[in-house]
Write a structure and sequence with these properties.
alpha+beta; GIY-YIG endonuclease; 4-stranded antiparallel beta sheet; 4 strands; about 65% helix; about 10% strand; rod-shaped
Length: about 280
């Protein structure tokens, strides 16, 4: 089974939109590849790094690429696409793949391109052409070619291992099965929690209904007690009035009785006063 990177182009981890100034703190401290896009929508530069935040900071302060430095100074960068990688080697392979496959080759990228490209400075272009001419190869050039070939072979081996790993992951569904199993467990836990929550709600509703009935009964009894208190207050008022009237009647009767006695005393003879007192107080 054959494999092609063109059918597995990774998507950006995120895209940082640049309003005016580039903020390095908006980028993570991890290996990765970054793609700068200018205001015209063109790819300005594609680069790799083992620390995205530090590399973006270096571009902002003093970029090694004059074209990038000029675009940043003129606020010509519209957005930066970021591809986070697990290792620095992953970022090296991904950057070379983006540039050589012309997917994200920026106009300021001067490495990994054809010698016939107009983006090469004259000194670099002449150096590459000189290396490609078999008749003009010297000892130093041979060593450089051997070094380049070793680097290319190393990168090919890394790419081949990466492809084998990808194929193995595709064939091995254990990770997906584990994810599905975990998802089922999570769903079961969620259902159990929902069931407990519904039981708690029912219990709370039952308690609330009971408490509400008790509160309603208490309010009703309080209202009745208030009515009874009002009636008792009215009865007490009436009783006070009756007591007052009774007291007035007793005083009036006493006054009348005293006056009658005084009248009898005045009317009786002096010798007969003792008999009158005896009749009044009923003494022998």
């Amino acid at each position: 089974m054959s494999f092609s990177l063109l059918s597995n182009i990774p998507s950006p981890s995120f895209t940082q939109t640049i309003n005016k100034h580039i903020e390095p703190l908006n980028f993570p401290e991890c290996p990765g590849v970054y793609v700068m896009v200018n205001r015209k929508g063109e790819i300005a530069y594609t680069g790799k790094t083992k620390n995205l935040r530090q590399r973006i900071h270096n571009h902002v302060t003093s970029s090694h690429n004059k074209g990038v430095e000029k675009d940043i100074a003129q606020h010509n960068i519209k957005e930066i696409m970021v591809f986070c990688c697990e290792t620095e080697l992953d970022s090296i392979v991904l950057e070379r793949y983006f540039i050589q496959s012309d997917i994200y080759r920026g106009k300021h990228n001067i490495q990994y391109v054809s010698p016939s490209s107009n983006d090469f400075p004259p000194n670099k272009k002449n150096s590459v052409n000189r290396l490609l001419k078999k008749s003009a190869i010297g000892t130093t050039d041979q060593e450089e070619i051997i070094s380049l070939r070793k680097e290319v072979d190393s990168l090919k081996d890394c790419v081949a291992k990466g492809m084998e790993t990808i194929e193995e992951m595709k064939r091995n569904n254990s990770v997906q099965e584990e994810i599905i199993k975990l998802k089922k467990e999570v769903d079961a836990e969620v259902k159990a929690i929902e069931k407990c929550f519904n039981l708690i709600l029912k219990h709370f509703d039952l308690i609330w209904d009971t408490r509400k009935k008790d509160i309603d009964w208490s309010c009703e009894m309080f209202s009745k007690t208030q009515d009874i208190c009002v009636v008792m207050r009215e009865n007490l008022t009436e009783l006070n009035k009756l007591i007052k009237l009774s007291k007035e009647n007793v005083e009036l009767k006493t006054e009348i009785k005293v006056k009658e006695l005084e009248f009898q005393i005045r009317k009786a003879e002096p010798n007969n006063k003792r008999g009158i007192f005896q009749r009044i107080f009923k003494r022998p």
